[in-house]
Specification:
heterodimer, A: mainly alpha, two-stranded antiparallel sheet, 2 strands, B: 9 helices, 13 strands, globular, disordered N terminus
Chain lengths: 214, 327
């Protein structure tokens, strides 16, 4: 399946880089950052599914949304393991101290916990058992995305609020996430849907006029 | 201490013109620091005159070395020097790229000759030095630790001369309190300077006594060879007890000032990057911890040392200061 190929790609790239010495001079940080980025890509991809459908009518991604979300969780787990294990050698007191004292790690951990909740409840069993609240529960993915971007921005040397320093990447991902979230707002969704319908109708009447001329 | 200082005092009758030299008090301070530094030579970073090109990699056996030369492979704490490869392929040099491993390929056409450094401001002898003239000053190899504010570090065998040598030739006026440094401003050679998110050109500053400190050098070489462009060629500052961003690269201007100079990272985020930026495990960055660091090449993190391990040499400069306020 195409999604699983995409899902395996970031990990394969990292393994390849590791085996061919392409991880550079600080390999632990390189691995940590690539895994974090992969988690973000898949999270944003899962959030892009509905807006893409709204704007283009492309349905193929809809059943893949869960897989995309789970890949995000998968890479978030590896990212966390790299941080706790490779970077901080499972020094629990040190890690706990960082978690509680350093806000970018706190925010990242929070995002991870939310992803964990989403991953665990993503199974059909839960959809069946609590259909009413399941949808609302999975709206948690929105603040998770925001927390992930903040975690990303806060790990950099720069200030997002004043737009100074090395924050262009988190900023752009933030803009993308914002756009995807805005496109889900019911009035906007409806407007885009109706616009698309009108374009399709116009195209088909134009075509029928053409054929009738002949 | 008195006997050592007396021979450095210049009788006022021999000073012409009057008032243009350092005031007596400043001169004594300078002399005191210089002689105190000499007294601490036993536990100081390793100094040696270059007689031989050092190894370019930890694993290469160096070519035959004359008996009187010392080939050093560690810093004064016994930690290995990082390899030439590591030092030249992991660079925070945003004038070229924010990707640390990309800088080395982007600097291939960077011109370091001809190069001039304008030394001026509140000095008696302003002068524009060519890089050739600067290379005639007494160059020594110094193996220093460099600790980045991002919490990674390396041990680097610089070649360079003491900044105080240059400043004493310029003769700072009594009113001079700070030294300001400026990097080349050239968007064509340094495409990153077109990025509006940063306050180009890169500027840095030191308090005059920090600048006169024995450890502060202007580096011109690495591993006994001319400084590679990605490491700040042809001339860069190295202040080993401060976070790496204070060690400004590709310097074109050095100015003595009365007011504290603006510094690049302080302009970007004043509550995160202070003027002093002394390496201090007790004062965290607002967003991340400074208690540990990743020494490049090592698997386990290390505890960060106060003043990057140079406490005995420099702590006197900050006596009575609250370093959590003057970060």
């Amino acid at each position: 399946m195409f999604v699983h190929l995409a899902g395996a790609l970031p990990l394969a790239a990292i393994v390849f880089s590791a085996l061919t010495g392409r991880l550079g001079v600080n390999p632990i940080q390189e691995i940590e950052q690539q895994l974090g980025r992969a988690a973000l890509y898949f999270l944003v991809a899962s959030l892009a599914v509905t807006p893409v459908y709204t704007v283009t009518g492309w349905q193929a991604l809809l059943p893949r949304r869960r897989a995309l979300g789970l890949y995000s969780f998968f890479y978030a787990c590896l990212h966390l393991l790299t941080f706790a294990g490779l970077d901080y050698s499972f020094n629990i007191p040190q890690i706990l101290n960082l978690l509680t004292q350093k806000r970018y790690i706190f925010v990242g951990s929070l995002a991870f916990l939310l992803l964990l909740l989403l991953a665990v409840t993503s199974f059909d069993y839960f959809i069946r058992r609590m259909p009413m609240i399941w949808k609302r529960l999975h709206w948690i993915v929105y603040p998770t995305g925001v927390l992930a971007i903040i975690h990303f921005a806060w790990a950099r040397k720069g200030t997002l609020m004043q737009l100074r320093g090395d924050i262009i990447q988190p900023f752009l991902w933030g803009i993308l996430l914002f756009t995807l979230l805005v496109l889900r707002l019911p009035p906007l969704r409806k407007a885009i849907f109706q616009l698309r319908q009108r374009i399709l109708v116009r195209r088909s009447t134009h075509r029928s006029r053409e054929t009738s001329k002949v | 201490m008195e006997p050592q200082l007396k021979h450095l005092e210049i009788p006022s009758s021999e000073i012409t013109p009057e008032g243009l030299f350092l005031s007596r008090r400043d001169w004594l301070k300078v002399a005191g620091i210089v002689s105190a530094g000499a007294l601490l030579a036993a536990c100081s970073p390793k100094l040696r005159r270059i007689t031989e090109t050092g190894p370019t990699s930890r694993n290469l056996t160096p070519s035959p070395v004359p008996e009187n030369a010392q080939v050093l492979t560690t810093d004064e704490l016994g930690d290995s020097i990082n390899t030439f490869d590591e030092i030249t392929n992991y660079n925070n040099y945003y004038e070229f790229s924010t990707a640390k491993n990309a800088v080395s390929s982007l600097v291939k056409d960077f011109n370091t000759i001809p190069w001039t450094v304008e030394v001026g401001g509140l000095v008696e002898n302003p002068k524009t030095w060519s890089i050739e003239e600067l290379l005639e000053l007494d160059q020594k190899e110094r193996i220093y630790r460099l600790r980045c504010v991002e919490a990674w570090s390396m041990v680097i065998p610089w070649t360079g001369f003491q900044l105080s040598d240059l400043l004493m030739k310029a003769l700072p006026l009594g009113s001079a309190r700070y030294v300001e440094f400026t990097t080349l401003s050239d968007k064509k050679q340094m495409p990153g300077q077109g990025n509006p998110l940063y306050p180009w050109p890169y500027t840095e500053g030191l308090r005059l006594d920090e600048a006169m400190q024995r450890l502060t050098i202007l580096a011109t070489g690495l591993y006994g060879k001319p400084l590679p462009s990605q490491d700040g060629a042809p001339l860069r500052l190295v202040v080993p007890w401060k976070y790496g961003f204070k060690s400004i690269k590709a310097i074109v201007r050095i100015r003595l000032t009365e007011e504290r100079p603006q510094t690049f990272w302080n302009i970007i985020a004043p509550d995160e990057y202070g003027f002093y930026s002394n390496v201090n495990p007790n004062v965290d960055h607002p967003r991340w911890s400074q208690k540990t660091e990743r020494r490049i090449g090592e698997l386990e993190r290390r505890d960060t040392l106060m003043f990057n391990g140079y406490e005995s040499e420099v702590s006197a400069l900050y006596k009575g200061m609250d370093l959590s306020q003057d970060y």
